[in-house]
Amino acid sequence: MRKILFPTDFSNAANNAFVYALHLAKEMDASLYVIHTYMQPVLSATHAGQPELVPEVYENYELHQFENFKKHTADLHKMANEYNLSDVPLTFLFEEGTVVANAQRIIENEGIHLIVMGTNRADGVIDKIFGSNTLGVIRGVKVPVLSVPREAEYNGIKEILFTTLFREKDEAALHQIMEIANKFRVKVKCAHVLKEKNIDIIAVTGRWQKMFPQDNLEFVLLDLDQSIEQTLNQYIESNRIDLLCVVKRNKSLLERLFKSSMSNRLRMHANTATLVLQEGDDPGAF
Fold this sequence. Notes:
The chain is of the alpha/beta class. It contains nine helices and ten strands. The protein has two domains: 2-149, Rossmann fold; 160-277, 3-Layer(aba) Sandwich (Rossmann fold). Strands 3-2-1-4-5-10-9-6-7-8 form a ten-stranded mixed β-sheet, sandwiched between helices. The N and C termini lie close together (11 Å).
């Protein structure tokens, strides 16, 4: 059985992503690990002249966090029942420390295949788009990370778009994406923005077509319109995309892609989940 890790702060964006993760786990026959982390407050060793109170403050803080955790996990169980997804195996984890450090440890110990996180995309700043925790996880782990915007609703995965440079290092990520596509019986559209005519791209598309001869791969070559990010945003604007797939090496493109939706007054599809994969031979096992 595949395993999905879902870090949550119990916000509205996270709760929405929880429902998305439940649906995905159901479709992928996966179990869902829900983790909530907390950081202990930093106190002076003397704590206002009463150092003996420091352990008690820490203990009370942890107790308060745990009571909050129990309340919210009960709410998540109710949500699973409301969406008729109570049969998805759930494991709840309450851990001290940063999201990234705990995610790294759980990935190794439990054999996690995918991380799903809820995000807000309100501002044209990368930390606001993904949230600092989500961005930190994207940078810090070696498994695919699915970023689910607050406005997203799970309606199945019928259209997958993979932004690619048609390089050999993208092939491992493509294999992972094709596993998803085969599960949902959909095509993968490989999109590339042409700055100029390139014979090498034609050779790569031919090789990829031979690698996946089941006729479930489509190539979308877009003529450059001002910038790469604007060209991609315009395509996403005019076509249904349920899952946008990018390779992590393109952090600068990833940032520009979402920031440009503000600067160019383009409305990035607010309901588009984004799957971020590793570059190279080990994009993470999905």
